[in-house]
Amino acid sequence: MSEVKPNSPRPSSAKQARPPDELRVILRLLVMLVVLLMIVGSAGFSVHLRQAAIEDAESNTVGVARLLDETLTRTLGTTDMLLRRMAEIARAHHHGRISAEQQRTELGDLQASLPERGSIVVIDAQGNTVAAQVPSTLGTTVNLSDRPWFKAHAEGTELVVAPMVFARYSNNLIFTVSRRVSDDQGNFIGVVACGIHAIYFTNFYNSLVLGQDGVIAAASTEGLILRQPNPELYVGRSVQSGPIFEAAVNKPAGTVIGPSLSDGIDRISAYRRLKDYDIVVVAGMALDEVLAPWWSTVGALLIALFLAGTAVAGLAVMAFRGIGREQAILAGLEQRVQERTEEAEHRAEEARLANESKTRFLAAASHDLRQPLQAAGMFAEVLSSRITDPSTATVVDKLRRSIEATNSLLGSLLDVSALEAGKITPNLSTFRLMPLLAALVDQIEPEATSRGLSIGAVPTEARIVSDPVLLERLLRNLLVNAVRYTETGGILIGCRHRGDHVAIQVWDTGIGIPASKVAKVFDDFTRIDRPGTTADSRGLGLGLGVVRRMAGLLDHPLEVRTLTGRGSCFGVLVPRG
Q1: What is the largest CA-CA distance in the chain?
Q2: Which strand (E) or helix (H) includes residue 210?
Q3: Average pLDDT over residues 200-217
Q4: Is 500's pLDDT higher than 80?
């Protein structure tokens, strides 16, 4: 053993305080870290808000584009159906099957069936309007042979959806849907055309929520069919190129973010290619309008970030000043903490030694007292066999039971002290359960029979993994407890399979456990008083405490079910072998 020098300093258990300079460096780093986290967090939050705003706008424009697709498809489909009928009427008039007056009447009925405001005209092979419901604003016959759609029909095209123009016949801004008229031999004899007024799509646009610079449009390779708002500014505008048309070549629907070719405004645009027509519809929202609320949020966030940074800097300055004041205080506190720590360690050591002394005393006292008690029990048995007087025999019998109860109490104390001292180590093995249950029943049966109770074990072939000695002591305590609290009926021990485990259960027909004591039934010194119970037969309430400690040592969960006045079931869950 090495010698401790008297003047050797004792190591301090208190943690050395950091030097003030080191604290200042750490504080500066923390301030920088906090500021950096606020900046990174604010930037990430701003990016998330911007992306969310763009996604909301994309969703809105996609919905509008779908609605425009459905509306325009329905309009074109209905108009084409009416034009087919009008082409048959024009063919019949050409062959003299109906009169000019009948043609005008049919024309009026069909024009009244148009889904939107517009006008239908019949044009002969030379391009002259030969039938219309509304008179020409020019007051003379209007010739439309120079229109590209008329030339396309003359060359053999059946259906044309032409870009918007100012109508020569009515002077309205329209886009034209036209169909070729052929005679019975298939020769070109004219065109029936319907001009759809742009005012209808102006009203449609005004019902949408796309913002001040929002736009809807429809275009073919020939030009803009419709464009809102201000369609008159885009008459004759070519749209054969651009990111939207390039995207529509490979994908029939999608979104594009970028400047518009018509006015140069950055927009979030959703497009769709009509299924039955070579037309692309577009709905767009101005990017500046979409991000305007986001910019307001970013401004507020920057102000909040500045205020938070200022507050952090102020707190850091106050902390730097406080470090100097605390330095002197910490020097005195360190000495006091060291003294208190040494005092606490000394008291903890005293408590540990006292607890060990108590445990050794209980173990020694319980062990030493059991020997004279066992001798007293033997003397009581001999005395009981030699006494013939009934009254004296009763007294001796009470003496014998008192000795047995005291011996049981000392046994419980000895078990508790041994378990508390940690001197018991489980020795696990695999064994058959039934021999253990049968031996326990044989041990407890005399006491149960003397009380007028039946006791038995349910046969089982189960094999389990446990310490047979500790498990036997645990189950014996459960059986003894069941006999003690059962007045009539009996006790039964058996098991039930639960997956990889076996639940060993002790059933009794005793007095049960009040609901208020079920949660504490395994605590030390917990007893349930029975009517007519004497002080020498109640015990210390340690039996189930010993069961709890042994179950914990074996890692076997406990369970209890009870019904007041009907009985109880105590169980222990053991792994199957």
Answers
A1: 152
A2: none
A3: 81
A4: yes
